[in-house]
Amino acid sequence: MGRLPSPSLPLFSAGGWGMVAALMKAGSPAAFRRLCNEIGTVDAVGIEERVAKYATRSVKQASKVAGLKLVVSMVDLTTLEGKDTPDKVASLCQKALHPHAGLDVPPVAAVCVYPSMVKHARRALGADTAVRIASVATAFPSGQAPLRSRLAEVKAALADGADEIDMVINRGAFLAGEFQLVQDEITAVRDTCGAATLKVILEVSELETYDNIRAASFLAMRVLRPGDFIKTSTGKTLLNATLGNNQVMLEAIRDFYLETGIPIAMKPAGGIRTAKQSLHFLIAVKETLGDAWLTNRRYRFGASSLLNDLLRQLEKEKTGTYQAPYHFSEAAESY
Amino acid sequence: MATPTDRKRPTLRPQGRPAPKLIFGDLWEYDPAPETADPKLKPRYELFINGRWVAPASGRYFDSINPANETKLAEFALGGTADVDAAYRAAQRAFTTVWGRMPGGERAKYLFRIARLLQDRAREFAVAETLDSGKPIKESRDFDVPMAAAHFFYHAGWADKLDYVAPGRKVAPLGVVGQVVPWNFPLLMLAWKIAPALAMGNCVVIKPATNTPLTALKLAEIFQDAGLPPGVVNVITGPGSTGGAIMAHPTAAKIAFTGSTEVGKTIMRSVAGTDKRMTMELGGKAANIVFDDAPLDQAVEGIVNGIFFNQGEVCCAGSRLLVQESVARLVVGKLRNRLRVLRVGNPLDKNTDVGAIVSRDQLNTIQAYLKAGVEEGAVMWQPPCRLPPKGFFMPPTIFTGVTQSHRIAREEIFGPVLAILTFRTVEEAVEKANNTAYGLSAGVWTDKGSRILKLSTELKAGVIWANTFNKFDPASPFGGYKESGFGREGGRQGLLDYCKLT
Q1: How many A×B Cβ pairs under 8 Å?
Q2: Are residues B291 and B146 part of one domain?
Q3: A44-327 in CATH: which number?
């Protein structure tokens, strides 16, 4: 879309052209409708009924153990605090590599830290490690910084050794109907990423409706590469990953894959604190996208306190009793 | 303006590459998760007449089997005309001496008590229902039993407010009503029949289906526990002829039947010339209409719920899918992927989505329809699934390329079989939907509210669901048009079918 100069006059005081220009800058009023016509809409009542059925699935015995271990391998162990320090990040990395002795659990998929902490994470993990380093670049969580400084942040994180970049989309532009701008910014970050994996955070609670979440998923997927992620939330708003918005995004990924053959990965983040919850999400993946997405290359959990609950449940499956919380090393939670 | 579609990256698959497919395998499989609550079965169940367990006059018993493994569950009394006579005498006596003259507020206490006792024993009843009928435990647990309790609660609430059922008029009970219920929702249909009759002050002689008598007798245990006066409800088990005797009995002031259209017609002939009241809830061949602007994934969910709920053994099942031609391929593709993850198997497993067909006879009937569908040129598809070695199982089945003249689009199959037809315009959709002898239910899927309102007046069906399917509520009247029957069950309208207005 051609970028027009901003109108110097208020919308209704100038002549016809000023008004048209203003409308076009704000994105065409019909843009959202047009996108919905193309990709279809979501019925909120229906999708919530669907996901309620995931929670009635009963996962027991060996399948429970296998599911919990799979979730461990999918965790992006996260610390995103103003008070993060090199030592805090180092202990997070140690936990990521060795979640718990004696349980035969794999390392987690990645650690997720702010850009300034990437070099400390790299030092703690070493160059040759199974745990990847993800960094929330692009003025996380609001994204309200000029594009050039957001891109500079991405470059800095990559230079310090990040393997994955978690970016936020421009929600302001999305809600104003400027879809092209949203997509162009994702493209710019993607191009800056080079070989690194890109995760696009939609911040679903600010998009609010399932239709918006589906539309934003498609805007992102259309410029992503195979194996890049779409992600629900920053974890910094009131409502984060739910089974409902997870399902909307999984169905978007499925439809896009069947149309183009490009497999996009998915990461719910924020609000998934218990092992039981995480199994419900895993059931959603199994029954919507199938076996090819049951791997940490295609599905991740952005979480901090989840890991210890997974370990607690695994310990319970192994020994038959629940261990006290102090039995498990604490490295991710906020103190 | 460039739309997001025609940007740098190709959004269409490069030519020559195979179509992408989803893999629904067993990389992470669920372990068996059987429901373990004790159904508390007795080896033998007698007739329930005048508040007591009574041996049948014939002295004979029949077996009820578990359709999921073909083993015997229990023996049931083979009731005959003499037993039906005794039941009507008890009911008439209860009506004239106790129940018919009891204040509504007092009757309500019994109904509330029955509802609460049913809730207390919900798991036990759910397991019993699943054992007897083959329906998945998640349905008996989450739908049949709670909904049955809800019907008793709802009608208990009416019992002391009957002066307001028909404003400006007085209502009075009819007397003794004879009722026959089907095997697809054994307990729930008992509740639909018994609760409004009792709330209004009528007494009941009822026969559960021959295949599924278990929960009727267990419900009789609850009537005893609730202290319901003897004779208010009498339960007679037996073959179809015993049901005929209940319908034809001269004491019956009203008869109520839920079952096939064929049997319904026989009953109506048998009572012609009498002054008995009648309500009939018979067969259906519902159209589920999907327009191109519908939220398709939720529509697919509704299609699945519409036809595979209770193995499709539902009179209001959405057995005909009418899908707008422009989205037909897309919808069928989504439907197939959805069916691939439906779990068919042991009904007692909490993860089972599709259970067992109620009987070998019914399985044979369904299979004959599959054969007919294929012979008439429709294309059959079933997802790959492993069926248990014993029991009456049938994978979910869809037929594409179906037209209005195929038998599978005209006749009620009463099984997990979906006939998919296409249409081009709204008018065509309505015409095709109404082009059936039945008229029990219909579904409409569209984002356009005005179209829903228009179709709700043009579709000739007793229940029309918009952007959902198979939703029930005790406050909502349910019943049919045309050969799907007459009379309503549930709500104020349902109560009116159980009273005299003066």
Answers
A1: 124
A2: no
A3: 3.20.20.70
